[in-house]
Amino acid sequence: MTPEATPLHGRPDEVPRRIVVLNPKGGSGKTTIATNLASYYAVQGLKPTLMDFDPQGSSWRWVRKRAETAPPIHGIAAYERNSRVTKSYALRIPADCQRVVVDTPAALVAQSMPALTRQATAILVPVLPSDIDIHAATRCISNLLLVAKILRSEQRIGVLANRVKRNTLVYGSLLRFLETLKIPVVATLRDSQSYIRAAETGLGIFEMKPSQVADDLAEWTPLIEWLGRRPVMGDAGNALLRAATVAQRASLP
Ligand SMILES: Nc1ncnc2c1ncn2[C@@H]1O[C@H](COP(=O)(O)OP(=O)(O)O)[C@@H](O)[C@H]1O
Ligand SMILES: [Mg+2]
Asked: Counting runs of H as helices and runs of E as strands, what totals does the chain give?
């Protein structure tokens, strides 16, 4: 897997890029994408932070499961409101962190979308190829455009077709639907046991034996490259990112 081609790659003083994985439909693959993306960045030495806004805490538990010897990922249980530590301490992103991956809850209301996506360099929407999921994704994307007021021209939204069985009718419907939305499909992931095996052990597929996951790794290349091409946010600093996180949490039910 090639590392991201970006002139800022490896600079510890850069503002961390924030990638938000979002789709109010449960089971679409948000946690799978968020944890594996964090695993990729960890292997790349980018000291990622994985911020979990889902009260079910699946991403947070995955980070806790990781072996001490695994490449570090800083986990933040952003859904936790009653932590005894102060809010800003609990939400602090380490200074050496270069990527923030945000996992979001199911049933997220449209009103929470502006705060969750404001500081995002990229918003990934995983969609399963089924009629119900296609319908839910239409709503999700129109809320991102109309409520969160993300412009198509910003090219921050990318759809990820997940658990795909190619050559099926419903996969064809998904592709046609995405074409009408004019939102790019930045990756297509097959249904694979590798993700289930990885999740059990707090690993990502990037940390498994490459010979066992070669087909899955190859499917991530277009996504990693697309993410690497997203423009870095202006001159927003860490303080701004923290403020955004507090606002995001406050806006969640
Ligand atoms: N590409 C995939 N192949 C096989 N199983 C998958 C894949 N993506 C997700 N899953 C499984 O589907 C279930 C729901 O995925 P998850 O990432 O938890 O969705 P969400 O966070 O959107 O609710 C999990 O059991 C996960 O392991
Ligand atoms: Mg989840």
From this structure: 9, 7
